[in-house]
Design a protein that fits this description.
Blueprint (H helix, E strand, L loop, with lengths): L11 H12 L4 H14 L6 E5 L5 H8 L4 E6 L2 H10 L6 E5 L12 E7 L8 H11 E12 L1 H4 L20 E7 L2 E7 L2 H10 L3 E6 L11 H7 L5 E7 L1
Parallel strand pairs: 1-2, 1-4, 2-3, 4-5
Antiparallel strand pairs: 5-9, 6-7, 8-9
Helix pairs in contact: 5-7
Bound molecules: S-adenosylmethionine.
């Protein structure tokens, strides 16, 4: 089974649906994921930043505007890579590479900050990637990532309209198939403990874990905010070398 996460984004229908979903009003990425991510990153001035699975690269524009020295985006999908290239064409010190994360050769001791937003649940051998990230960081460098929360990845369903989010088979790790945006998408389910353990194993000091609690000030619609209080959508780790 091919589980390379970027392949879905090169299916034109999926890509169109995904970009529409990301642009929708009060979407969870903009109301929950991004604000928490920005808070975890803090001051990025003078940082060399690596973004794994950079998607449309728009965070790169923010980071350059906030004073980072360079932004490197790795992206496996040609559609996404082209979008990121066009979004960032007017910015200096931007380096985009079309490659899967698994195939890319990480430089050693180069980055002050490595980020990855909602990508690592597509990766099979997560510890191998954590190890490459660790060695690509400068001493004291940070690695911050978000993923779909394991209570979500545990409940993914192959087909049918979802009627509940009952957590089941939580301790059964591995691939979950999900009918998402018209495609059969494979994601890797791991527990929170697993992520913790893999980070520790390669030498990271874990500094913060967040479970994506929504903040009212990021919502205009009260109903949407209340709905987002029901289940955690995302999980974040911030670690240092
Ligand atoms: C949910 S999108 C998130 C994009 C971006 N990080 C953001 O938050 O806007 C996931 C992205 O990861 C990319 N991706 C998934 N698996 C990948 C892999 N193994 N190597 C490189 N890119 C990958 C996809 O092509 C897609 O652009």
């Amino acid at each position: 089974m091919n589980t390379n996460g970027s392949q879905y984004y090169d299916n034109q229908e999926f890509f169109n649906k995904y970009t529409l979903k990301r642009a929708s009003n009060e979407n969870p990425n903009d109301t929950i994921e991004k604000p928490i991510f920005m808070e975890l990153m803090g001051n990025v001035s003078q940082f060399n930043v690596l973004d794994l699975g950079c998607g449309d690269g728009r965070i790169g524009a923010d980071l350059i505007n906030f004073g980072c020295s360079s932004y490197h985006g790795i992206e496996g999908s040609t559609n996404m890579y082209n979008l990121a290239s066009s979004n960032l064409e007017s910015f200096k010190n931007v380096h985009l590479v079309r490659s899967t994360i698994e195939d890319w050769t990480f430089p050693k001791g180069h980055f002050d900050l490595v980020i990855s937003r909602l990508v690592l649940h597509y990766i099979n051998d997560i510890e191998a990637i954590f190890e490459k990230i660790y060695h690509s960081l400068t001493d004291g460098g940070k690695f911050i990532f978000s993923i779909e929360h394991p209570v979500i990845t545990s409940t993914l369903q192959k087909s049918g309209k979802r009627t509940n989010w009952i957590v089941d088979n939580y301790f059964i790790r591995g691939i979950r198939e999900q009918l998402w945006l018209g495609a059969n998408v494979c994601k890797h389910h791991r527990t929170i403990e697993d992520y913790f353990h893999h980070l520790k194993s390669v030498g990271f000091n874990i500094e913060s874990i967040k479970e994506s609690e929504p903040k009212k000030e990021n919502f205009q619609n009260e109903e949407t905010f209340k709905r987002r209080l029901r289940i955690p959508l995302f999980l974040f780790f911030s670690s240092a070398k």
